[in-house]
Amino acid sequence: MSDNQLSKDTIGGRNLVKPSVYGGVVIILAVLPLFMKSPYWIHVFILTFIYIVVTVSFRAIAISGQFHLAHAAFMGVGAYLAGMASKWFGWPPWLTIPLAALATAGIGMLIGYPFARLRALYFALGSLFFGLTIVNIIIAAKDWTGGWPGLTGIKPLISGASKIHYYYFFLGLTSLCLAALYRFEFSRIGINLKAIAQSYMVASSVGINEAFYRILALGVGCFFAGLAGATYAHYYLLLSWTSFNLAATLWIVMYLIIGGKDHFAGPIIGTAILIMVPEFARELKEYVPFISAAMLLIVIFIMPKGLAGLPQLIKSRFLERREEPRPQVRASSMLSERKPE
Amino acid sequence: MDPELLVGTLSNVLISSAMFTLAALGFAFIFNMMGILNLAHGAIYMIGGYVTYQFAAVFSLNPWAAILISAVVFALFGIFLEKYFFRPFIDNFDFAVVACVAISVILQQAVNIMVGTKIMSIPSLAEGIFRAGLVSVSYERITIFVIGGILTGIVLWFVWKTKMGQQMQAVTQNREAAALQGINVNRVYAIACAIGSGLAAVAGSLMGAFTNLNPFMGDAMLLKVIMLVILAGAGSIGGVVIGGVVLGAMNAVLPVFLSGEVAEVIYVAVIVVLLLFRPQGLFGHEFTMK
Predict the structure, then answer these.
(1) Is A26 exposed, middle or buried (0-12, 13-18, 19+ CB in 10 A)?
(2) Given CB atoms, is A98 within the 8 Å cutoff of chain B?
(3) What pLDDT, on a 0 to 100 scale, did the predictor assign at position B286?
């Protein structure tokens, strides 16, 4: 996050370009089902909406400098809690979804408390293994979670509804979640989180309670991951632990980095591109992973700021003529800790 | 406990320890020196086994020659990876992770397309069973353990005693200071990656001869390898060997008493607790991102 961007986004609330772009996208998506009749594509869009919430909430944790490699597992916590409550206790979806989201946030914060002592790489590794613990518990507790084959028998979110109903439900939910996460990022809390990511020592020295804010970021991120997971459970009606393992988390990281982690729009663009483009090419079947991998390599070698940083990159390369050597666009690592000089 | 089970468990402990150590050494080199979590290591381990299979079973070469060819091929591949995928992202953890995941997806999917999920096994390295009184161990197990032990010993000797190994240790401790002393840091990286990838291919081949090959065997091994490096701690190569023995013992002994799923939960929970209370591992020092 460069300095000028921080100030532009936080203070420049009068800028109408961004809200109109977001609003336009939502309107286009709202009228899209009128022209798109294929239920399969509607399904792809719904999955994209769900994963957009997950990826943006991953970024909400990442802006505090925490590389949360258990994020898909936390989505799984929400999904399995909602699914189990629905299957074993027969609770209705409007009860299981909020409860599952809150419980996921609670678990995230409980774990955040001991993990607040780990930084950078160690936080990443710790959360990686915590995520594995969750997945292994899901596999081991097979009387409750269904174990290897997966959990079935979850009640649908809207009984007797078609895909179109789900489409509008998830469009609305995703828009609401994104609005909330946008407010979160550009609030006072979000600025504190970014300060902690830049230098936890300096942040602590100006009175930011590092552990508190990091746990808060985890709680917020896990809440939305759990929410997405719970709605996913009630939409898909079949849960398998393979959707929440390390590979799933790594794909969330890919969505974020392809899109560009320095922009709020980054994870949205990245998720949409990485889920949709392989679907366009699905006649190629087993060659589809090569397309995804090629996209990843192109982005990291050519566009260090991701797809959301592309306009900025083009502007600095081609449009602005300047005498002095142009500043190099370099990506900063999520884990880089700048030591005080 | 009857002697049959005891000997079986003991030989499992030895074999798992040797395999984990062999596979983890390369990962530990790259992690310690470059700070890169090489998530493609599991894919190299897996595809190393398949290349050996190709030479040994399809071209019907001597299995030992096949393993050697596979090791050399992947050592070269390691140099290629280091030059074009690790070195550009040495200070950038996330992009290195993305590059490694992309490589591992490509390798895994290539194997998946070419051989599918057919069960295949590398021809046996040694025939027969060793018997002494009540106990009996197959010669194959003994061979694999001996090879693993010898290779680990050679690597330790290389790191501790040779000039190149000492340069590697220097780079692990402080990259800039090592460069100031006239060490060619890039060459050290290249050699470390070559050794690491070659060893991973050997481990994959031995494992493929001992059990059988499948395109996803790298994932499980990758997790074991990351656990092992955490257990050992950053910067400690001797710790990798001891960590390998600890993890191998857990891997072989826990399933005797518990069901497999519960044993898996216990492993990873142990690692989480270890990270919380001793992030520097059992033998290493705390790793700082540069």
Answers:
(1) middle
(2) no
(3) 58
Q: What is the crossing angle of helices B238-257 and B260-277, to 10°?
A: 140
Say how far apart CA B221 and CA A310 lie, in whole Å.
37
Q: Which of A130, A289, A334 sits opposite B105 (nearest CB)?
A: A289
- Which of B94, B108, B227 should one mutate to test binding to chain A, selecting the residue with the greatest count of A CBs within 10 A? B94
DSSP state, residue A92: -
In the structure encoding, which two tokens stand for residue B47, read together? 């595809």
Domain positions in chain A are: 17-244
Of B95, B97, B276, the CB nearest to A126: B276
Q: What is the mean pLDDT of residues A99-117?
A: 90
Question: pLDDT digits over A282-313, tens only?
Answer: 777 778 888 888 888 888 888 878 888 788 77
Among A131, A121, A111, which residue's Cα sits nearest to residue A66?
A121
End-to-end CA distance of chain B, in Å?
A: 51
Cβ B146 vs Cβ B153: under 8 Å = no
pTM here is 0.86
| Cα distance between residue A191 and residue A307, in whole Å | 23
- In sign, the C-alpha dihedral spanning A154, A156, A162, A167 is negative
Sole residue written with tokens 């070469």: B61
* Model ipTM value: 0.85
| CA-closest candidate to residue A155, choices A242, A87, A248 | A87
Give pLDDT tens digits for A8-59: 444 444 567 777 888 888 888 888 888 877 888 888 999 999 999 999 999 9
b or e along A271-303 (b: 16 or more beta carbons within 10 Å of the residue's beta carbon)? bbbbbeebeeeeeeeeebbbebbebbbebbeeb
Chain A residues 272-301 within an 8 A CB cutoff of chain B: 286-287, 289-290, 292-294, 296-297, 299-301
Residue spans of chain B under pLDDT 50: 289-290
The dihedral sign for the CA sequence A81, A86, A90, A91: positive
